[in-house]
Fold each of these.
Amino acid sequence: MNDTPTLTLYNSLTRQKETFTPQDPSRVTMYNCGPTVYSYAHIGNARAAVVADVLFRVLRHIYGQEAVVYARNITDVDDRIIQSAKETGKPISEITEKYAKIYNDDLAAIGCLPPTYQPKATEHISHMIEMISKLMEDGFAYASDDHVFFDVSTYDDYGKLSGNTLDALRGGDRVGEGEVARKKNSADFVLWKPELDGVGWDAPFGRGRPGWHIECSAMAKATLGEVIDIHCGGVDLKFPHHENEIAQSCCANGHEKFANYWVHNEFLNMAKADGSSEKMSKSLGNVTLVHDLLKEWDGEVIRLALLKAHYRSELNWSEDLLKESKAQLDGWYRKKADYFRVKSLGAGSNVPTYLDELLDELNIPLLLAGLDNVSEYIETLYTANSEGGISNEQMSENEDWNIFVDLDFMIKRANLLGFLQKDPEVWRKGGLDYDVLVEEYDSVRAQAIAAKEAGDKAKMGEMFKRSDEIRDQVAAEGIVIESGPDGKSTWRKA
Ligand code: AMP
Ligand code: ZN
């Protein structure tokens, strides 16, 4: 594998940039903590998912599509889910299935590839019980008052990822007072809790439900193995969640490491009235939902906005960021239209696609700037002719088909990153395609006119009614139908 590109990643565990070396290049493993499915994902959550998606794409590019195994879990047992079931009177599975589907649909709309595995916590309870039993047997965990806790004093490396020493942690315990009384050390965390509102599973240490942290340790092991290559997530998960995943997995599996590389994305922030900004989070009540944004913006626009800042820098979310991204994509799509046109004239290119900027610690903004450079260069050619694109002369001017090679290079790289996936014509019309409805509109109007000429008033009324319905339906979605010559209409965004 001499010509394997070298990927460097900033490893949060060692706090330095390192060359990425997988344990087995034919099975590269990555894990990303997925959502707790009781409501919609916000755009901050989406940032974590999109960053992991870019890493997944880069790894697939380097090691081959089949060689990368990516697990992103679904947390479908949680106090907030139980609470929501109680409040709405709906079965838990109805709530979790609904929001898991919405989550997947929303992420697909912003260009995230489906992970290889999407384990659900409720399907891995036996693995959690197994892991907890092993931790208890080996003296890393203890039962107390219907709970099982991990004893942090048994694990010397506890605090290494987050930089928190045990002394510091003792002072900063965030668990309720009742629980503190049951624990040996205030930093001990819960592995198993008693059943709540009838939600529980039988276990040797009592009927109950898992703590959040053990879920990920068990699901990562079941899907990827005992030691994984890369673990991702937002910086807020470093402590306590990831710290606790490491402690459980290393002590239960008997390895020095749980994940060899830890990749943490920085926060997405929301502006405050006083001009400062703060992390987007449900608890602060300043969230913008991906689901709502998708009603107004194309998924690629949202994706580009999310990738504009380096993943290790904070990103300030705003409407302007979306507008900027939309304008950028409009320009890129114009090049894609030209690409098709010039290709149909017989242009070819063997340019290899590479993502070198991303090899250096996923420098996504640098790659995006590269796409802009090509796009802007091609834009300068447009001004030299009146055809609204690259002219045939301009294309044949250059013996090497350089302009086409540039276009090809730009578009393939954009595709790899999850952009320019649509037909340029569909994009121009606002990402929507109403062609089929407009065809039906023309057809029913033609039938109405024919019925009128034949004196069939009933049929005429019925057909005009249907054409009005189509017009109203698309109008409700912000689309205007415009009549054209020969009874052939077109549509555009109002
Ligand atoms: P949660 O549903 O809170 O467990 O979060 C799911 C993922 O989104 C985790 O990787 C979090 O670290 C990440 N996340 C949550 N809020 C933000 C934010 N404002 N900016 C970036 N990532 C976030
Ligand atoms: Zn996790």
Amino acid sequence: MTRMVIDPITRIEGHLRIDTENQGGEIVDAWSRGEMFRGFEAVLTGRDPFDAPVITQRICGVCPVSHGIASCEALENAFAIEIPENARLQRNLILGANFIASHLTHFYQLSALDFIRIESLLDYRGSNSTLNHLKGWAEQEISSRKILPVAPFLPHLEGDYPKDQKWNIQALEHYLQSLEIRKESHKMAALFGGKMPHTATLVAGGVTSSVQADVVENFRTRLLRVRQFVDDVYLPDVQRAAELFPAYRRMGAGVKSYLSFGVFDENGHDFLPSGFLNEGQLHSLDLSLIREGTRYSRYRDGAPKHPSVGVTEPDPEKEGGYSWLKAPRYGGSACEVGPLARLLIAAHHNVFPLTQQLRRLGWKEAELNSVMGRHLARALETAWIARRMEEWLDRLRGGEATVSSYGPSLSGQGEGLIEAPRGALGHWIHVEKGRIRRYQCIVPSTWNFSPAGEKGDKGPVETALIGTSVARESQGLEAARVVRSFDPCIACAIH
Ligand code: NFE
């Protein structure tokens, strides 16, 4: 038995360490360890509740929109505030643009380098000036220090990269192009959000930006360009990666329990619906079944709690505590959340044509529970949302309200449940005498990267790692590929 430690896991958001025990070149046990505590719940306590959407957006620069909307919804739920249709649509558009930016960044900047042979840069003969610049840099590095690769394609673990030169070069070109497209989607979010990454317009009661025809058309033009890239480049690139790495259509299978809170409110129902999918059976959500435990977390112990009564009391030296993440469970089950969960649940609701899409692409549904399955689900979801965004644009009404008025409220309790790019996100607020008495968040990566639960049951990523073959234990590339397929954000997960 050997111990493998990857610390830090790079090309992710936040501070994650993975420990595994390996036997015969295969992972037989795994520990997911979130490494940095910040304490947003403590920051929020005692403050004006209407500051929460501003403060909670600072949990993360990748998915701030989801935190902002979840926080607004928690306040609206606590104080019975209705929002106008224009606000609902603008929130969908800001969030949709953020989903696109997040998913593109995850594939190209964070994950694709796991599947590209960077040395191919030395044979580049094309006219892309940035790639030629990087090639020159790589040649210098090789002659002086004998090392490759070069920034920004770092760090790069040794392993089984493809020999297909066309793929390697094209993927590097797309890496650079995607930065431009990501910028477009950021600008789209800023058109209604005021600025990005942390928007200025999300408030309890709606969105403070009015609907202007030139802004709508500006958004539409950028959306067209983004859609073209997603359909013609991103989705085919994911397909090609899956062809080049067929073993990863089996590797990294997770817990087979999927959770979604539902997202993109279309006047009472969600475009991507909520649900709990367990062993192929879809159940409607019962939020009272959520508990967060801390048995193996660096927090003071106690029975697992519903987030409406949750507490966050750090205990850095706790015996047995190996992560700063808590351990959320739904009805006692560890759940995978994120694009794969959303698409499977949407397919079970018959609102996403998964079977047709998979047939078109040559996939079997059973292959989705894998590293490549998660990448494919993310790309399919991006295309699906981007298409729907045109309809949300069409439904905006100039001259009509975007925010509702409401009187001051001094007490209440509420929850805001939404999907962030990485999965199910919940904010729970308790207000007393005009101040926040308690605030708790359960965040997508907390579900996915959870440490063991009360009974020692492993979290979703820990489960997905077990059974993974590792060719070079000093590198751990295969484990890193499994981990990155979940798109970790440990800044969010610990908050
Ligand atoms: Ni920091 Fe986030 C998303 C949220 S994370 S990126 O998506 O909420 O797990």
